[in-house]
């Protein structure tokens, strides 16, 4: 019995060490061997700016827009706009989530409506590889908060004490008839169900609070394991040794001229090769987007420094309230391959040269003089096979032209081998004119993309008319 107890104790100790090691290392990875950084963000108001964008950096200070500067995900639910995203990695690195504010300003909703009767939901996507994302779903986080009017700026951090995530966000619960945002939290393991929301941070009186983000600090740096930055009229810093424990106010960044009147959306980044951090701040008041503020100790207010002129480059797109992930080599390789800057192009019909391939309500056809993004695609390396191509929609990133029962639709890539085969084609010399192009099915090589009664189909080609129908020009 004593031997059994000893063996069980060893097993429990090993399990405990596994969870501790995983929870500390993976969610905010910052190993010197990791090659780069990935920023998820939105760009501004309007339906196009309030979607999900990615940028990559090798040094954490100079950023390149991915996917040609176009969104990598578009919300098709709720308000159909998303802002303030957080990018969350599971402790074992097997899953990733994007959680974002369900909000679309200047595309059907103004700020007053968003503040006082906004969406109580967050928008969530899930992935196992950072490149193939699920359909989004709505997570109601504020519906159970009495008089909760909205749900903004979500974040999540793995809590090693409870082995789940602390999900936190801002909700307006008016005080004496006036707006007052405070930060609430709930626990979750899957971002589909949550515990009952509780108040997490509440400033005295009428002071509002939004845009909180927590960073985990390694042992030996500063006095606290966790530091959080929040927008509460200042950019206030607090420290704690427990995510759900007591937090101590450390000060704010007014000493370097940064208050809540100038900046918002604090976003932490740990440099992979040294004990130095950047707190990115969104210069919303001047419409400047993010800039980095550096420190060697997140808990020491006096160590924060404004960036020197020319020391950073945020890329072409404006970077607004988002999230940064330190990438492993495998993650970086997948992301850079998937979101390479491929230009948007159109497919012009050979025998109806005023018509172009386009999607309409996810059906695919050829229509006259279409210049909108409905007729624009990124011709990607084929999802199946070598020397092949697949057609990804510009305005519905992650959706591809796919045949099913020889009919074509625009469909989200579900990551299956069947989808990959159905959405893959070989580009060959045009069947009606060798200076144009035709597209042969990967899994039905006796069939080609062609239009028939203006609808796109996958058919055998046996007549001169069919050869013309199956011939297209790739054009801008």
Contiguous low-pLDDT stretches (5 residues minimum) are 1-28
Class computed from helices, strands and strand pairing = mainly beta
Number of strands: 31
β content, as a range? 35-45%
What is the distance, rounded to the nearest whole angstrom, between the alpha carbons of the first and last residues? Answer: 76 Å
Main β sheet profile: 4 strands, antiparallel
Q: Going across the major beta sheet, what is the strand order?
A: 3-2-1-19
Shape: elongated
- Number of helices, counting only DSSP H or I runs of 4 residues or more: 5
Fraction of residues in helices?
10-25%
What Rg is obtained from the alpha carbons, in whole angstroms? 25 Å
Mean pLDDT: 92
Question: Nutshell version of this structure?
Answer:
By secondary structure, this protein is mostly beta strands. The protein has five helices and 31 strands. It has helices at residues 2-25, 111-117, 329-338, 417-422, 464-469, and strands at 36-42, 53-57, 63-65, 82-89, 96-102, 121-127, 137-140, 152-159, 164-172, 181-188, 198-201, 210-216, 226-231, 235-240, 248-252, 264-270, 277-282, 290-295, 320-327, 344-349, 355-360, 363-368, 377-381, 389-393, 399-404, 407-412, 425-429, 437-441, 448-452, 455-459, 472-475.
Key attributes of the depicted protein:
476 residues, mainly beta, four-stranded antiparallel β-sheet, 5 helices, elongated, disordered N terminus
Question: Can you characterise this structure?
Answer:
The protein has helices at residues 2-25, 111-117, 329-338, 417-422, 464-469, and strands at residues 36-42, 53-57, 63-65, 82-89, 96-102, 121-127, 137-140, 152-159, 164-172, 181-188, 198-201, 210-216, 226-231, 235-240, 248-252, 264-270, 277-282, 290-295, 320-327, 344-349, 355-360, 363-368, 377-381, 389-393, 399-404, 407-412, 425-429, 437-441, 448-452, 455-459, 472-475. By secondary structure, the protein is mainly β. The strands form ten sheets. It has a four-stranded antiparallel β-sheet with strand order 3-2-1-19. Strands 4-5-6-7 form a four-stranded antiparallel β-sheet, with no helix packed on it. A four-stranded antiparallel β-sheet has the order 8-9-10-11, with no helix packed on it. It starts with a helix and ends with a strand.
């Amino acid at each position: 019995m004593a031997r059994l107890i000893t063996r069980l104790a060893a097993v429990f100790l090993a399990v405990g060490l596994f969870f501790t090691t995983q929870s500390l290392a993976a969610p905010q990875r910052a190993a010197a061997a990791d090659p780069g950084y990935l920023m998820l963000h939105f760009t501004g108001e309007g339906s196009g700016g309030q979607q999900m964008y990615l940028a990559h950096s090798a040094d954490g200070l100079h950023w390149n827009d991915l996917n040609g500067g176009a969104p990598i995900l578009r919300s098709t639910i709720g308000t159909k706009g998303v802002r303030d995203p957080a990018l969350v990695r599971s402790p074992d690195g097997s899953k990733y989530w994007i959680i974002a504010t369900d909000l679309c300003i200047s595309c059907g909703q103004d700020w007053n409506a968003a503040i006082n009767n906004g969406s109580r939901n967050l928008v969530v996507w899930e992935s196992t590889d950072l490149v193939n994302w699920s359909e989004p779903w709505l997570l109601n986080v504020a519906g159970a908060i009495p008089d909760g009017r909205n749900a903004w700026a979500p974040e999540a951090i793995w809590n090693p004490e409870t082995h789940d995530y602390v999900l936190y966000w801002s909700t307006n619960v008016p005080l004496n008839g006036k707006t007052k945002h405070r930060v609430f939290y709930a626990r979750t393991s899957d971002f589909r169900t949550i515990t009952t929301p509780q108040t997490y941070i509440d400033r005295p009186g009428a002071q509002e609070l939004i845009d909180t983000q927590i960073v985990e600090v390694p042992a030996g740096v500063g006095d606290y394991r966790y530091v959080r930055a929040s927008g509460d009229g200042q950019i206030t810093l607090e420290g704690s040794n427990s995510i759900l424990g007591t937090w101590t106010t450390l000060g704010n960044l007014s000493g370097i001229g940064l208050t809540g009147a100038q900046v918002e959306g604090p976003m932490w980044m740990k440099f992979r090769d040294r004990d130095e951090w950047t707190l990115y701040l969104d210069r919303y008041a001047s419409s400047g987007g993010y800039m980095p503020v550096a420190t060697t100790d997140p808990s020491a207010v006096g160590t924060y420094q404004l960036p020197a002129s020319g020391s950073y480059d945020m890329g072409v797109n404006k970077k607004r309230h988002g999230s940064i992930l330190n990438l492993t080599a495998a993650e970086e390789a997948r992301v850079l391959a998937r979101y390479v800057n491929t230009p948007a192009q159109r497919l012009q019909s050979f025998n109806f040269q005023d018509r172009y391939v386009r999607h309409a309500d996810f059906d695919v056809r050829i229509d006259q003089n279409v210049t909108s993004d409905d007729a624009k695609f990124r011709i990607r390396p084929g999802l199946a096979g070598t020397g092949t191509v697949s057609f990804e929609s510009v305005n519905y990133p992650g959706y591809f032209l796919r045949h099913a029962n020889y009919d074509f639709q625009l469909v989200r890539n579900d990551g299956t081998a069947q989808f990959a085969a159905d959405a893959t084609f070989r580009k060959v010399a045009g069947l009606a004119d060798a200076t144009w192009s035709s597209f042969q099915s990967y899994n039905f090589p006796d069939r080609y993309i062609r239009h028939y009664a203006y609808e796109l189909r996958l058919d055998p080609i046996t007549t001169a008319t069919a050869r013309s129908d199956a011939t297209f020009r790739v054009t801008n």
